Structures are given as C-alpha cells and as structure tokens.
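for the writeup, i need someone to sanity check this before i put it in the appendix. the sequnce is what the collaborator sent (i think, or maybe the updated version? ugh). structure was predicted straight from it, no edits. if anything looks off just tell me and ill rerun, i have time this weekend
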Amino acid sequence: MAKRFVSVWFRHLSTDWFNIRQPALGEVPFVLSTATHGRMIVTAANTLAQARGAYAGMVVADARALVPSLNVMEDIPGLPGKLLNRIAEWCIRFSPIVAVDLPDGIIIDASGCTHLWGGEEAYLDAIVNRLKVRGYHVRAAMADTIGAAWAVARYGRDKMLIETFHQSDALMLLPPEALRLDSDTVELFYKLGLRHIKDFMGMPRSALRRRFGQEVIKKMNLAIGLDEEIICPVQPVEQYQERLPSLDPIITASGVEAAFRRLLEMLCESLKGEQKGIRLACIKGYRTDGKIEKIEIGTSHPTVNSEHLYKLFEIKLSSFEPGPGIELFVLEANKVEDNQPAQEKIWGGKDQLAQIRLAELIDRLSGKMGAPSIHRYLPAEHFWPERSIELAETLNQPSSSSWKTDKPRPLQLLSVPEIIEVTAPIPDYPPMLFRHKGKLHKVVKADGPERIEQEWWLQEGEHRDYYCVEDEEGNRYWLFRSGHYKGTKTYQWFVHGFFA
C-alpha cells in the first residue's frame, strides 16, 4: 500500500484562537505582541491587520502608525505548540497517526484511511471543512511524501490533491522555500536567479552539494520520495487496534452498543489468528464537539471471547455519553498475552472450561465492585501466619509451595495481631477469660498450644504459643502468647484470627 500524507497549514493559528475565544475580534484589526530586547514586537497579525500592512516581526509602534485603530494583545508563550498538540489529538478521528509540525502545521498519515470517507478528495475536504467550522483558516494538501504535501499546502496555487507518483511534477513550479530550506539558502537561490524548483531540480547533485550544501539534497530527496521521512505521532499507535468511523454521528444507546460489539468482534478475530488474548482494553468515542469519551476494562486472564468482553464494557456503558454524536469509535488492546488453547483431558486433570468460567465470573465481579475487591492468595515460605500468605498478581500465577493443612487455621486472619487482656493458669495453660475490644469472653473449650518460632533470618520478636479457643457463645478464636512465662507478667497475649 502506497503511503499518503496530509499536511495541514494553519495560516493564522494564534490569532484564530484569540478570535474563537473573543468573536468580536473578528471585526477589527489586531496583533499579538511580546517584549524583545526592550521593544514590543508583533508576533502574529490577523487578516485585517495584515491587509493594512501589519506583519509578524515588525515593531508595534510602526504597526500602530500604519493602522491607528490597531488592537494590540499580549501573546501567550508557547501557545502555538499547545494548540497544535490539542488539534493533532482531535485529528486522530481521521487517522491514528497524527504529528505536530511546528510552528504552524500538523501532519496526518492518511495511508489506508481515505476509503472510510469515500475517497481522497472527500477525506481532504472533511479535514479542511471541520477545521474551518472550528474557526481556523487552513490549507491542506495530500501527496505521497510529507515534503510534497507541506510544499503544496503552503505554496500551491491550484490542485491540493497530488496524485500518486506525481509529487515531482507538483513541485516544479513552486519557489525554493517550498523545500523547507533555511532563509540564507533561499536567498542565495534568488540571487542566482533560481526562482523555481524546476530551475535547479535537474542540476547534477554534486554541483548542488558543492554550491548549496548537503541539506538541499536531503530536502529534495525527502520531497520527491527518494528518502523516507519519519514522524512522531502525538499518541503512540497501539499494535492491536480497530477503528469504526460513522458516516452520521451516533447518538443513541443502541447505536453505541452495536459499535462496541462490532469493534470487539473485529479485534478478537484478529487476535485469534495470532493466538493472543486481551488483558486490558479501552474503547474511545470521538464526539463531534471535540470531546473524547472513554471506557477501560481489564480481565484476569487473556481472552478473545467478544461476548464476555462486551459484558464487561456494558457494566460501565452508562458513563459513556455520546452527547451531540460520536463520529469515530476506537478499540485499543493496551495489553495482550499469549492465549494458546489447552488440550482437554477425557479422564482426570483440571477442567479447563471450568477455569475459564471462573475467570470470567471474577472479571464481572471486578467490573461491578472494582478490581481491588477481588484477591487471590498463595502460600509463602514463612513461619509467622501473617507472613505465610502473599497476594497473587494473576489468576493463573503458579504457587512456589503448597498450603499447610495439617494444623487448623482461622478463616479470617488479622494482618496485625490485636492485644487482649487474659486470665490464664500458668505456665502453659490456655486462657480461662480474655477481654477483646472491651468485651469479656469466657473460654469453655480450648486446644493447644502450637508453638510457632520466629524465622532465624528475620529475628523479630519472641516465639508464639497459639491456642484455638471457644467462648460461651460458641465463637471460636485463635489466640497466642508471645514468649515464655517467666514468673513476672512481661509476656503479652494477642488475638490473631477468627474461625467460622
């Protein structure tokens, strides 16, 4: 597929922005200014001011002399860069690859996108018209190379759509500055009477290099396509992405749902061929008013089940506001993992289907209650109970050790043991009474002690003697004494967990 690029030139970027914010400025000549070396210099002028002789670079006092009714406003530092970046992000509705072209343009990689708008001419018209509606004076051109599109957009007179492989012909009648050369080189061309690119395009490259430098050769090669030019998009392009433009803006819930389903089916079908599955996904909706609606979901295991993924998006669908209409839907798989189907066993072994259903159930619960509400724990190689478990990162994370099942453990384990007051015979008998959070409990049954030593590589605290006790109400607790009984009450008792 041949590359096609669109260069958009904002002829009055800064003044257009001021005019959009203050419509009354459209009826009067005004300029933007900034202080330079103790003088106020014009940085930009609107069309009315330019028509009366004011231009960027002149002293404000001289501009006032030419235009007595001139309005002067203070320029905002860095404004063009900020505006172009925002406009480039807005233009992602036309292509996933859009780059800022300082100081007054953007570059759009239109390769493979124009058919969605009914052809290249309709595509170019859509870009220009939409930007003009937003209040910007723009010119745009399309060509096989960025250099040719840039040149025609700024210096072309007639045709803005350059046919494939015809960029050299389109450049011939343009001035030398159309090659994006520095001012000194351009001035040298004019001094030598070379006022059009055709005047020196056919010269030997060695002669051009000796007289004008390597930069001229480089810019010519970029413009005619002998060298490739790389652009840096404002948003990195996801490797796994599907786009769904709308001929008419979608404003209904049923239309949004249909778009979601279609995007998921397309992306899942693509991932199946690569044996990949979605772990994180995001659907963006580009509205006609410039706002972007977004919904993100995550899964506990890689999946290409489009129906399951849609149910996860459906949970959050109420927060997706189409407003005046969505003109482009984009689905991005921000994280994918290998998803190779496992061989099912006829007898014995784990039921792979049951595992998938469990994972999908966890996904739906996470979508409704939030991912932090669902946890999976694995055994850890530690003696002390609060250190003997660790949080699993994924549903399928393997365990490095097995659970200890030879001793009773409480259903609810406190992350930090809580101090209790205890009445107990000595030296190694379970408590008869204990007070927890102000409530007195009488112990009717007890089992223990179970001694758990500290880890020698940690050396924190005394050993612990654990008891399983039951109070008169039938509640069961896991208590422990820290350290030996030494005749003086220097030891402490703690509650560490609760049985069912």
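The longest helix spans residues 253-273. Residues 1-28+69-237 form a domain with the Alpha-Beta Plaits fold (CATH 3.30.70.270).
thx in advance!!
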